[in-house]
Design brief:
Blueprint (H helix, E strand, L loop, with lengths): L3 E7 L6 H12 L3 E7 L8 E6 L2 E6 L11 H11 L4 E4 L7 H4 L4 E4 L17 H10 L2 H6 L7 H4 L11 E5 L11 H25 L3 E5 L3 H6 L12 H10 L2 E4 L9 H8 L3 E4 L16 E3 L3 H12 L2 H19 L1 H9 L4
Parallel strand pairs: 1-2, 4-5, 5-6, 7-8, 7-9, 9-10, 10-11
Antiparallel strand pairs: 1-3, 3-4
């Protein structure tokens, strides 16, 4: 039975695909009546406007508080003066915004974000994408070429532990010189890079072949840590997801603008045990440190967390099971969107 009438002002944006997929799946289930209205929007600014049962609802999947490519205070001023709606669901939810919301609308955490391709023919596709969809549906072609279309089901995996506990950490570096014009953005990058490089070096040394990972190749990483670069085929998304599913312990670091990266959600989808830097933004439901993930603030703490899980397989398996439960209730696209719809009155 249709419960929600939804208009989506659609534009292409990878960070919004999880939201698009969630609505498409709810439409397929007969829970929503979905109307797609092509709109103008920035490929890099993941802020989606919708109408749901006559209410103006915004889904914000930005990495942080970055509606503008400007310093933080400019963004807070923009949020105060330009955001007008009835409900606002934000991926990077923080209480910092509460004074700027100032009871103008209802404000809720959206949850973890990751990259998938929406199902069905609900959304406009460019001709080249239609061709790609037809080609990739051929099993022979998909076997010969790496997979390019990733559905929700491709991310999922049961909470099963391996005998040899493989440890995974794959990361990229960010060149500080790309944002020299903004001191706020510049300063976070060297610290982020230092943490990622240090983790890879130490885990390679301690765990040898049981550690899978390294640094993704680009011009900057070739200068900074050429010895840690992994072959280009390994970070390719299809191969990366296979390694995630084979790894009991997966490590996540804080992303740009203090964001919770896609990897964290991908680990959840695959029911893995997670070790992460502290989460800077709030999530819906109960995703707890010590239950769903262990935290670290330096390289030694990261290695200690790995040791704790390696030597306590029961704790690791319980974390996998808890992450499977959290994923099904709060991250899986249709459930994530259904949770938001239940907030709209």
């Amino acid at each position: 039975m249709i419960q929600y009438n939804v208009k989506i002002y659609y534009f292409q944006c990878p960070h919004l695909n999880q939201v698009y997929d969630g609505f498409a799946r709810l439409a397929k289930q007969g829970i929503v009546n979905l109307q797609i209205i092509p709109s103008q929007g920035s490929y890099y600014k993941a802020v989606l406007h919708t109408e749901i049962n006559g209410k103006h609802v915004i889904y914000d999947c930005l990495d942080g508080l970055i509606w503008l490519d400007k310093p933080l205070q400019d963004n807070l001023d923009y949020f105060t003066n330009n955001i007008d709606c009835d409900y606002y669901f934000k991926r990077s939810y923080t209480d910092v915004l509460l004074p700027y919301v100032n009871s103008r609308f209802k404000y809720f955490p959206l949850g973890l974000n990751y990259g998938i391709d929406p199902i069905g023919n609900y959304y406009p596709k460019k001709t080249i994408r239609r061709i790609k969809d037809m080609i990739i549906s051929n099993p022979l072609v998909e076997k010969l070429d790496h997979k390019k279309i990733f559905r929700l089901e491709d991310m999922e995996n049961p909470p099963v532990s391996a005998i040899e506990h493989q440890i995974l950490f794959m990361a990229r570096l960010w060149n500080p010189d790309d944002v020299v014009w903004n001191p706020e953005w510049y300063e976070e990058r060297p610290l982020m890079n230092e943490m990622r490089v240090g983790i890879v070096r130490e885990l390679r040394k301690r765990y040898g072949d049981r550690f899978v990972g390294g640094i993704q190749r680009d011009n900057y990483s070739e200068k900074v840590c050429p010895d840690l670069i992994v072959p280009d085929v390994i970070p390719r998304r299809d191969n990366f997801l296979k390694e995630v599913k084979k790894s009991d312990i997966c490590i996540a670091t804080t992303g740009l603008f203090d964001s919770i990266g896609w990897k964290f959600a991908e680990y959840m989808a695959a029911s893995r045990a997670i070790i992460s830097e502290p989460l800077r933004y709030k999530l819906p439901g109960e995703c707890k440190e010590g239950k769903n993930y262990l935290t670290f603030t330096n390289i030694e703490e990261c290695c200690s967390a790995v040791e704790r899980l390696v030597h306590n397989p029961d704790v690791m398996l319980r974390m996998m099971q808890d992450n499977r439960e959290y994923y099904l209730n709060y991250v899986r696209s249709n459930q994530m969107i259904l949770n938001t719809l239940k907030q709209i009155v």
